[in-house]
Amino acid sequence: MAQCGIPRSWSDGGRVHQARSQPQIGKSSRFGSFNDRRRARVPDLKRWDGASRTSQPWDCLGKRDPELWHRKGNCLVYLHGRGQSSRSPSFKVPYNTLLATQCQPLIARCIRRDIPETLDLEASQIELYIPAPPTATEAEVIRHYLDIRNFFAWILRRSMVGEHLGATLIRLLHTMTELRCLGVNNADDLLSYADEEGYLEMCNQPAHALSMLQFAEYCQDRRLYIEAFTHCTGMFEELYVDPEYQVITSATRRLLRQAKAEMDEKLGQATLMLQNFLDEDLSQAHLGLTVGGRSHLERFRTFLHAFFATKLGYYPPTSIDQRYLIFPPAIYRTMRDDIEALYELLILSASSSPAFTAGSTDHQRISKNLLAP
């Protein structure tokens, strides 16, 4: 598989993000209100808790979000136009945190307009009004609420909320591009947050791996794409039942199927060698070993077979694949640990005892055969 099918135009280490068209936030004097409109079908929203590696149903849509109500906050955030609704503020955040995260464009666009110019904003309570566009449909109003909610969740380092984590992170990147200062690296800042939140922990986490794969493909982040793609290939059998799999591109799904087929074929070839501990590869037909070398190799192979048969109950284990001989993953991990420990023991013995002669003819022939391409 040539570089996971990554387009050649992608840079090796950088993240190339071209801002795409998004609904503009809060640029009209006419405002829509979430509760004032007829409700659209609300998607099945989840709160993605990266620290616990879980997702739970979330039903705070249109309500005050307790996660985003900072007890020391002095900036009230309304998701409607001033005077257009009696709803209370949705979020409360520290004003200096908005400044620290370079959200001056958000402040300039959405701050209450009739405050005195001499007012010390950092020491006073201020109000931000962030309405959905007046022509927004019910579904767009819901997306607007979630976009703003997740933007403030990023500011306060809280968990994301959405139907799909990958798409949620992509929309967050758009919102950050629109509401933060020019010149900041939004992709890097978002990935730093994702790392802190635990979304970059992809080992045995299909939802995280698929989400980061979708995000990396969108941003053309080569490094992240390869890492997420590798995890997804290893967990391929678990991907189908995860909702995130349905929202990655068809091209990426095709590449994953190809990579899985290639991995199974190579794993099957390696397992065939483990099945009899290289009996064919190190046979007399391939090596001209001395009688003593052949006898020693057979005793070593017999020892390995007896050891793993005792430890695993029987050897070789039953294949988990119908096309190739493939052991369960736990078997590979067990054998790797034991063989690494044996290798370290042999290295230690060779360095401390003259009985081990690494320069023998038999040793050279075996090494040459094992290292041959």
Can I get a quick summary?
The chain has 373 residues and is mainly alpha-helical.
Radius of gyration computed on alpha carbons: 29 Å
What is the strand arrangement across the widest sheet?
A: 2-1-6
Q: What would you call the structural class?
A: mainly alpha
Strand percentage: 5-15%
Characterize the overall form: elongated
The residue ranges in which pLDDT falls below 50 over 5 or more consecutive positions are 1-24, 26-38, 366-373
Helix content: 40-55%
Note down, in words, how this protein is organized.
- 46% of the residues lie in helices and 6% in strands.
- With 373 residues, it is mostly helical.
- The chain has a three-stranded antiparallel beta sheet with strand order 2-1-6.
- α4 (165-179) packs across α6.
- It is elongated.
- The model is unreliable at 1-24, 26-38 and 366-373 (pLDDT under 50).
Per-chain topology:
Blueprint: E1 46-49, E2 54-57, E3 75-78, E4 91-93, H1 95-100, H2 104-110, E5 126-129, H3 138-155, E6 160-162, H4 165-179, H5 186-197, H6 206-219, H7 222-234, H8 236-239, H9 250-275, H10 291-312, H11 329-352, H12 361-371
Parallel strand pairs: 3-5
Antiparallel strand pairs: 1-2, 1-6, 3-4
Characteristics of this structure?
373 residues; mainly alpha; 3-stranded mixed sheet; 6% strand; elongated; disordered N terminus
